[in-house]
Amino acid sequence: MIDVSSNQDEPGVEYEIEIAVKVEGATVAYQVVGESMMPVYRPDTVVICRAHTPNVDSLLGRELAVGTKEHGRMLKTVHAGSKPGLYDLESFNAKLMRDVEVVWAARIAAIIPADEWRILERKAQVREQLKKPSQRQRRASV
Predict the structure, then answer these.
(1) What is the pTM of this model?
(2) What residue numbers bound the domain in which 124 lies?
(3) Which of 33, 44, 67, 84 shows its CA 20 to 30 Å from the CA of 92?
(4) How far is CA 25 from each of CA 45, 52, 134, rounded to the nearest angstrom?
(5) b/e per residue, 36-64, with b = 16+ CB within 10 A?
(6) Is residue 12 a part of any domain in this protein?
């Protein structure tokens, strides 16, 4: 499962990440929460995706980030379902989900392993702490 506690589609809830590798067209990143996708994705792995598209048919057979009405966001391999507009979602370590309505899909552009992501987070925190207080990013209270 992908963390759904914050929805990047909501106005005003936006996060920006900076990575060492340039990924053209990447627009959204998701951080894996929990161990349900091990051993493929460990907790805290960051998956960088291209823009969401409602055109799922052109992406069949690929591992994608998908959004569904009933199950939220997930990383799955997407296959055609029994009817147009429905898809079978193949998991890494769980039962196949049959005939799911997928609202959007996004191609995976890059994967940052959890250990590497923690290093990037620490570096960003150190850089932020070294700035003058007036130059630091203001953080919204939750």
Answers:
(1) 0.71
(2) 26-132
(3) 84
(4) 20, 11, 32
(5) ebeeebeebbbbbbbebeeebeebeeebb
(6) no
Q: Residue 79's closest CA among 108, 99, 95, 94?
A: 99
Token pair for 5: 């506690």
The strand order across the sheet containing 63-68 reads 26-31, 46-50, 102-112, 63-68, 72-80, 87-90, 97-100
Residue 135 corresponds to which amino acid?
Q
CB 4 within 8 A of CB 24: no
Handedness of CA 91, 107, 105, 44 (dihedral sign): positive
On whether residue 9 sits in a domain, the answer given is no
Q: Which two tokens stand for residue 72?
A: 């939220």
Residue 122's Cβ-count burial label (10 Å; 0-12, 13-18, 19+) is exposed
Q: Is 21 part of any domain?
A: no
Q: pLDDT digits over 20-77, tens only?
A: 667 776 678 888 888 877 778 888 888 888 888 999 999 999 999 999 988 888 889 9
